[in-house]
Amino acid sequence: MMLPGTGSDDVFVRSVFEIPLAAVGVRTHTPAPVPGDRLASAHLAALDAAAADAPVLVGGVSFGAHLAAEWAVANPARCAGLVLALPAWNGPPGDAPAALSALASAGDVARLGLRGALDGVAGSAPAWLAGELERAWTGYGDGLVASLELAAGRAAPTLEQLATVRVPAGIAACVDDPIHPVAAARRWAAALPRSAVRSTRLDVVGVDPEALGRAAVLAWVDAGGLDTPT
């Protein structure tokens, strides 16, 4: 089961992971976000339900990667592996760029309204990202600001917690992404006992979203993922 990032949606996370995971025999499930204060708890509940009968491969993008790893820390016997893209911080967010960006976006939506905030994104972000946010943010409705603020304030697993996760973990980073620094992905990989990192570029993901999923899945294979039942 793959979870979307902050302000993103199941449509994008499916476009990232569905084909790369199918190539290694894994079917992708992507729950839609539940906007507002239940955003994180609903995703964690979806992971609980998915693993009710057998361990599952879990992951996601950015905030979704954080939640998947958080769940894996708490449910070691039910997690078969991790496929993570663009982790952004460890422990409390502090001044992590992704957290500050989400808070800034929440402020823009609160101050300018959805249309005004999206117009601002269209004037500053690559066209592909502006298009993704147009669809995803509209889908959050009145829960968008609360969702952005919740994601920006939620602690990710600490490095010490990640060190307890023994399943194979593949991590994808974008070398040209200042919001999700490569250094953060490398810290996660150094902490996780069975892990690997592969990289791509945001300008490639804009043309081919599967490039991000391929990097994460190939890193999972590098970490021994195909040797672990999913």
Could you name the CATH topology of the largest domain?
Answer: Rossmann fold
The rough form would be described as globular
Q: Give the number of helices.
A: 10
User: Over the alpha carbons, how many angstroms does the gyration radius reach?
Assistant: 16 Å
Structural class: alpha/beta
CATH superfamily of the largest domain: Alpha/Beta hydrolase fold, catalytic domain
Number of domains: 2
What would you say the CATH architecture of the largest domain is? 3-Layer(aba) Sandwich
Mean pLDDT across the residues is: 96
Specify the CATH class of the largest domain.
Alpha Beta
Q: Which strand order spans the largest sheet, edge to edge or round the barrel?
A: 1-2-3-4-5
Helicity range: 40-55%
Instruction: Specify the oligomeric state.
Output: single chain
Q: Total number of β-strand segments?
A: 5
Largest sheet: 5 strands, parallel
GO molecular function, one term: hydrolase activity
Organism: Actinophytocola xinjiangensis
Keywords: Hydrolase
InterPro entries: AB_hydrolase_fold (IPR029058)
Secondary structure topology:
Blueprint: E1 2-3, H1 10-22, H2 39-50, E2 56-61, H3 63-74, E3 79-85, H4 97-124, H5 127-140, H6 144-153, H7 159-162, E4 169-174, H8 182-191, E5 195-200, H9 202-207, H10 210-222
Parallel strand pairs: 1-2, 2-3, 3-4, 4-5
Helix pairs in contact: 1-10, 2-3, 4-5, 4-6
